[in-house]
Amino acid sequence: MSTHSGSVPGAIPHNMVTTALELPGCRIVRNLGLVRGIVVRSRSVIGTIGAGLQTIVGGNISLFTKLCEQTRSDSFELMLQHAAELGANAIVAAHYDATELMNGVTEVLAYGTAVVVERQSA
């Protein structure tokens, strides 16, 4: 489901999203409000067993790392879609949050402020 937004017409390019309150070289001309992307994921039984085996040898639990990275990526892309639907061309103050809803089920939220920016001339 995850796609690179640079290839989707009307989508917001990844380089137009920042955790800062402004984009260098751009001026915010309109604030469109809060946007978000929410994904709720659970671990599979097989993945949990595999990750459990990885804990025996220690180090990075790659099965969980991959699951977390994919979930963050999916929530980010949903946030971009939400912003594009509002007519934004950038997102400022972007953040992630995660909450465990129940054992093995986690919600990941990507959120920020959708804005319309114009490039400033030098």
Figure out the total of helices. Answer: 2
Strand order of the largest sheet: 1-3-2
CATH architecture: 2-Layer Sandwich
Gross morphology is elongated
Given helix and strand content, the structural type is alpha+beta
Unreliable stretches (pLDDT < 50, length at least 5) are 1-7
Separation, N- and C-terminal Cα atoms: 39 Å
Which class in CATH terms?
Alpha Beta
Per CATH, the superfamily is: Hypothetical protein apc22750. Chain B
Work out the strand percent: 35-45%
Could you tell me the CATH topology label: Translation Initiation Factor IF3
In short:
The protein has 122 residues and is α+β, with helices and mostly antiparallel strands.
Blueprint of the fold:
Blueprint: E1 26-42, H1 45-57, H2 62-86, E2 90-102, E3 105-119
Spell out the key features of this protein.
2 helices; 3 strands; 122 residues; elongated; disordered N terminus; Translation Initiation Factor IF3; single chain; alpha+beta; three-stranded antiparallel beta sheet
Question: How does this model look, in words?
Answer:
The chain is an alpha+beta fold. It has a single domain (5-42, 69-119), classed as Translation Initiation Factor IF3 (2-Layer Sandwich), CATH 3.30.110.70. The chain is built from 2 helices and 3 strands. The chain has helices spanning 45-57, 62-86, and strands at residues 26-42, 90-102, 105-119. It has a 3-stranded antiparallel sheet with strand order 1-3-2. β2 (90-102) and β3 (105-119) form a beta hairpin. The longest helix is centred in the middle third of the chain and has 25 residues, at 62-86.
